[in-house]
Structures are given as C-alpha cells and as structure tokens.
Amino acid sequence: MTTWGTPDPRDIGTLEPDAEPTLEHGVVKSKNAIILRRFLRNRTAVLGLCMFGFLCVFAAFGGLLSPWDSRTIDPLAVSQGPSAEHWFGTSQSGRDLYMQMVDGVRTSIVIGLIVGLGSALLAAVYGCTMAYFGGRVEKYMLLFLETLIMVPTILIVAIATSGGGGLKENVPGWILLTAVLLLFGWMGAARLIRSLGLSLMTREFIKAAQFMGIHPFKIVWRHLVPNIGSLLVLEVTKGISLAVLAEISFSFVGIGVKDPDISLGVLIAQASSQVSSFPWMFWFPLAAMFFLTGALAMMNDGLRDAFDPHSTSVGKAKP
Amino acid sequence: MLKYLGRRAATYVVMIFLTTSATYFLAVSTMKPALLEQERIPRPTPEQVERSFKGLGLDPTASPWERYVDWLSGVLFRWDWGRSPNSAFVNEQFGDRVWVSTRLFLAAIILTLVIGVVLGVVSAARQYKISDRLITGYSYFVYILPAPIGYFLIQLGAIQINAMAGERIFFVTGIATPGVEPGWEAFWDMAAHYAVPTFAITVMGWQAYQIAQRQYLLDNVNADFVRTARAKGLTRNQAISRHALRVSFIPVAQSIAFTIPAIFTGGFFAEAIFAWPGIGLWGIQAISMADVNGTVATVAYASLIFAIGAILADFATTLVDPRVRVS
Predict the structure, then answer these.
(1) Which residues of B touch A238 (CB under 8 A)?
(2) In Å, how far is B78's CA from the nearest CA of chain A?
(3) Which of A104, A309, B72, B296 is spaced 20 to 30 A from B121 at the CA atom?
(4) Within 13 Å and on the Cβ side, how many CA atoms surround A184?
(5) Distance, CA of A56 to CA of A106 (rounded, Å)
(6) What ipTM was assigned to the predicted interfaces of this complex?
(7) Cross-chain residue pair B147–A2, CB shorter than 8 Å
C-alpha cells in the first residue's frame, strides 16, 4: 500500500554520515567502491537493477519490435487474445495491447523518475535548512511540513485533474499528476533528513565553517547535503516506487492519468470491469506492474544494505 | 500530560484551519461550476446561471477573498458549510455520510494498528523462523501492491467465494440491503456489508506498522538492558515483553499520526471500489461537479481524521514514554 510520508524505520540510525576510507590489505578503498561492491554482492539487488533496466529499455525501444502503434485500431482483431500478430492481444477497441503497455510503462517510469528525483532534492534542501537554522525557523517550517502531511493528497489530485477549471484543458493529466505527487511527496524524507542533519550540526566541520563566516546556504549545500548522500539515494529509489504505486492507484480509481494518455494504472483500470471475459487485458499490465514495483523494492533493499556498515545480510567482506 | 495534549490539540486546530483555507483558495480559483452548467439542456443563459449561483452563495463574479470571508463567517458563526451548485446543503449531505465513513475509518485504523504491532512483535520474537518469514514476506508483498488493486482483487475473491458457495455470503458493494427491517436484522445486514471493506483496508494497511515494530524491537533485543534481564534469569519472551517491548513501541506510536493519511486514502479507494456511499466517494463526486464547498468540507473532514489520529499517537506516546509525561 502506498504510504506517503511514513518514516521508514529501516533508514534511521543505520546510515553513518561519513565512513572513513577502509584499509584492506594495505589498499585504501574509497567509500563508493565499497558501497558498489556490497551492492553487487547482493544478488536480489542486482536482479532488481537488471529488471528495472530491462523495463527502461522495453519502455524506450520496445515499440520498434512491433509493427503496430498504441493508437492504431485493428478492426479485424477486436478483443482478441494473445496471438502471433498481437503478442499481448488487443483491447475492446482493437488497439494492440503490447504497444499500449510500452507506452504505459514509459509514462509510469517517467512519472516515477521525476517525482523520485525531484522530491528527494526538495526534501534535502528543506530538511537541511530546518536542521541548520533551528529555533523558531525550524518550528514554523516543521508546522508547515506537518500541515502538508495533513492534506489528503487524493483530493488535491482529484481537484487538479478533474476540476471543471481550465487547468485540465491546457496541461496533460499525467503532468498535473506528477506536479501534485511532487509537491506532496517530499515531507517524510524531509523529516528524516532533518533528524540526521541535526546530529551533523554538532560536528566540528560545520562549526568551523560557521566561524569562518561562510554563507548559511553555502554551508547547507556544501557540507550538509553531501553528508546525507546515502540517505538521499535511498529516498530517490523509495520515492520512485511510491510515485509509481501512487500513479497506478489514482489512475485505477479514475483520477490522475486519463484516457487518451496511457499508463499502467489506466490499462489495469480499463480491463478491470471484464476480468473474467478478457483476462489478458488485466493480467498482462498487472504483471508488468509487479515487475516494476518489485524491481524497485529489491533495488531499494539492496542499496540500504550496501550503505549500512553494520549490515550482515550479504555476508562479510572477503579478505 | 493533559497540558501537553492540550497544546498539541491547539496546534492541530491551527493546522486544520490552514489546510482548509488553502484548499478553499485552490478550489475557488480552479473550479468553474458555471462551465458545467452550460452542458445542461435546455442551456441556461449566463445571466440565469449567475443569478442561481448568487442565490446559493457561489457568486462567480465575486473575488476569491470576498467569497472566502463570506464562507468562513458562515462556518464559524452559523456552522453552515455552504451549498453545492445543485442547491443541496453541504451540512445535510455530510450528516448522512459522515458516520458511515467515520465508523469504517476508525475501525480500520484501530484494527490495522493492533494487528500490525502484534504481528511485528511476533515476527521479531521469532526472527528468521518460518512464521517471521511468512509475516514479513507478506508485508513486503503488500508494499508493492497498490491499495485499490488489492481491494479489487479481494472483491474478485469474495465474488468467487460467493459463486462457489452458491449463495451470497459476502456483500461486495453498497452499505445496506434495501427493505431490511430495522432492529437486529438491519444490524446484521450492516455488519455483513462492513465486513469486506474493513477486512480489505486492514489487510492492506498493517504492513507499515508490522515492519516498523519488528525492526525497532530487533534493535532493542540486543541492547544491554535486555541482555541484563536475560542474565538475571528471564526467558527470552519475558525479557521482550517486560523490557524491550515498551521502548520499541515509542517510535511506532510516534509514527501513527503519519500513517493516518495513508489509511484515509485507503478508505477513499475502498469507498470507490466497494461503491460505499461515504464521504470519500461523495468528495470525489463533489470535485467532478466543481462543488467548491463540498470539496472544502471533505478536506476539513480529512484533516480532522488526521488530527484525531495524531492525538491518538500523542496519547499513546505519553502512555508508554515517561519522559513525555514528566516534562
């Protein structure tokens, strides 16, 4: 279930702000090399990465394999099951399901990437600013943040994408959905980053920078943000999967992405009324959805273990 | 403790005011019910539309600020949440539906919380045994399954069971069978209708609590004070229940408030999927009708549910965490 803004306990306390370069057999290995090795050692995570990469390639170039496109109607094959001509069958209007899925997966991944990257960036700036200034600024920023958590995102999505106003006519639905998810998707991460930033604020290098009279925003950008890098990477992958899940959920109940835009949620929703008569229309997009969200969850898990210096889930480093 | 809770409650009132006002301005500036009126047959003239909206207090020519002041004074002084474009009273529409949704949401929130925490404790106490793997694996599976699709699959399953049994065991849509006698019969009918949506929200909702509780408890099981308790002769289960449990519940209790919006969204989805005549379904319809007052009332209701959940979280925290009680 999509849980926006839920603090994830697995992220707290397991991330060391900055690990020292490790000495292994006299060779100094950089932190990034160690993290990469730990990630690659985790089979599940690598499998997740491969699956995600495969889906990206499918979304980008899958259209070249089939002679159809997602809008052409084949009047000779309406509501047909999978066949040699239409690999995943056709929809009730005679459109090729394979090509619709290429488009749908692409929309879902693009929404996920924009929201994941954007909300992590927003959260980093906001959370670090809160941690840096403290006091009254922090109090009011926290109040604003909690107020945003309180707003029911589903209603804002509905207002943006279906209100009788002028927004809908000028901007495609999926862009509106992306904007709302971005605006209301960063708060949980920002709270987490604040708590990590608060502990960083007591460190000597921040104090030194402050005494040197460096501009606060520069300190935040140069010293705080890089030190929470690992947490940010996790928030990006988590944000991507939450955004993909949210897109599918909202489109499924008829708000969010709408026909003629195609996304995985739209495809699943269109098929849901006749699951028993046209099962392929429902189960193919659903399988693609599990493939995508599963891949992201596996990647996220592997990255978390790779960043966590105390994790033993992938075994000990070989000498 | 009461002082602390009172201060928190005051903060939530301010927050409800902020969200409601912000939504009012968003709704007033994006929603144009006059455009929808143009689709009626016979098509009313712009003057007619303007006159009828003026009578409802939805004057499209007034500036958003004027309308806001008007609306706010109505809410504050007369508890009048305004009227819809189809001239229905929001108060009345809300009154019919508010208990339907509140009962569903509160039952789901409490069940989700209790089951999630209990399963979290069970799975942490039996780490890496088969029951832990099943419970935690299920939680990860739910994590990658969007809530409405989960509800839809549950609905399909219930229909399947009905078909196999040859009679109607589960009601998968609506809230009551028409024409049932009031009294016990109506009560059982209502319970039968509540069963599937409540079950669906609960089984799709507890994963966050389960994973959180398991993780925090495992962090504490290896702490020194629990090892001391073991060394003094307590069994593992005694040490967990007497010493580790309370400490590990504090962060979970604090996070309750931030999972309420998720459960609330889940409730909206459930109302949409199970055709449940509650606030969620009505709110979505109000939005598609460009009904400003109805939309804002729904947001205020959602914020209130959040505030109730947050106060519940604060209360639970003060109950288990002596540090909050003292300071």
Answers:
(1) none
(2) 25
(3) A309
(4) 23
(5) 7
(6) 0.84
(7) yes
